UniProtKB/TrEMBL annotation:
Start and end residues of each Radical SAM core domain: 18-256
Keyword Amino-acid biosynthesis found: no
Protein name: TIGR01212 family radical SAM protein
PROSITE patterns for this protein: RADICAL_SAM
InterPro entries: ELP3, Elp3/MiaA/NifB-like_rSAM, Radical_SAM_C, rSAM, rSAM_horseshoe, rSAM_sf, YhcC-like
Pfam families (UniProt xref): Radical_SAM (PF04055), Radical_SAM_C (PF16199)
SUPFAM superfamilies documented for this protein: Radical SAM enzymes
Length: 315
């Protein structure tokens, strides 16, 4: 069901305004690793992390092979078969980890992909430095995003979920990227161990004070084999229910300034990845609940931030 009126700035709306047509994001696995897995910081990874990476796990195909496989898949779908432009998303693990020369090679390879509208690079806040940011800032793409996994502003939670970085690290990384003119999309997660809904909303308000240009909101789900799934089975951790998450996500939007681009409103588990909760596979239902909550309360993105009086998305 379509929402009756726009109440937030989605990435799809931004891309349609920029390119005049639908732009599809393609997730790519560059075979990256993570200092939280290779022994530099830890070997266990974050407690919510899928050992194969976020939704891809196809590094053996190479970037070009993955790109073409996804384009063929989209061409077969009635919903996306007319799509002509794509964003390359280096998604799995920490893509700015390692020497700058490796990142430079990845960016060069991406630049040669056909029908490319731009790119997104996923990383951690403690794997960003000036040399790598200079490489990213020099990219000629009309659309580029540096996606930084922050998750929370609470250092005690970061320690509990085995992140091995601090909220201060996130703040430093975001500000440094902004100095280079690089748009940052910050990833924030609701339902983390030990956190309440109020804690999540405080994280969103904290993020709104930083020079970010985009946000991804995620509900914590439990991948098979992940440490959080073990905690759930032992009765030490309970997932949010769908209505609870939708209410939190809708309220979170009110704290984000209206120019911030909303890249995602809920998590999207890969096929076969999910152990719990079942509703995490109901992306359409979750989005409908979020939009219904916005409408019912007459909320919109920025209502508790920069646009308290009028919905700026009703122009």
């Amino acid at each position: 069901m379509k929402e009756r009126s726009p109440r937030y700035l989605s990435l799809d709306c931004r891309l349609r305004a920029l390119f005049g047509e639908k732009v599809q994001k393609i997730p790519l696995d560059a075979g990256s690793t993570c200092p939280n897995r290779d022994g530099t910081l830890s070997t266990g990874g974050c407690t919510f992390c899928n050992a194969e990476g976020s939704g891809t796990g196809r590094a053996a195909l190479g970037l070009r092979g993955q790109w073409e496989a996804w384009r063929e898949r989209f061409a077969r779908s009635p919903r996306t078969r007319h799509t002509r432009l794509f964003l390359a998303y280096l998604q799995s693990f920490t893509n700015t980890y390692g020497p700058a020369s490796r990142l430079a090679a990845l960016l060069e390879e991406i630049s040669s992909l056909p029908c490319l509208a731009g790119a997104c690079v996923g990383t951690r806040p403690d794997c960003i430095d000036r040399e790598k940011l200079a490489l990213l800032a020099a990219l000629p793409f009309p659309e580029f995003w540096l996606e930084i996994g922050a998750q929370t502003c609470r250092d005690d939670t970061l320690a509990r979920i085995n992140r091995h970085h601090s909220a201060a690290d996130t703040e430093q990384a975001v500000r440094l990227a902004a100095d280079f003119g690089i748009p940052v999309c910050l990833h924030l997660m609701a339902g983390l161990p030990g956190e309440s809904g109020k804690d999540f909303l405080q994280t969103v308000q904290w993020a709104a004070t930083l020079p970010i240009r985009g946000v991804k909101l995620h509900n914590l789900y439990f991948p098979k084999g992940a440490a959080v799934e073990k905690e759930r089975k032992e009765g030490r951790l309970t997932p949010l229910d769908q209505d609870e998450y939708a209410a939190l996500a809708a309220k979170a939007l009110t704290f984000l300034p209206s120019p911030v681009v909303i890249h995602r409103l809920c998590a999207d588990p890969a096929p076969g990845e999910l152990a719990a909760p079942p509703w995490a596979l109901d992306k359409g239902g979750t989005l409908h609940l979020i939009r219904s909550t916005l409408e019912y309360n007459n909320w919109w993105q920025g209502k508790a931030a920069d646009t308290p009086e009028n919905n700026p998305f009703l122009s």
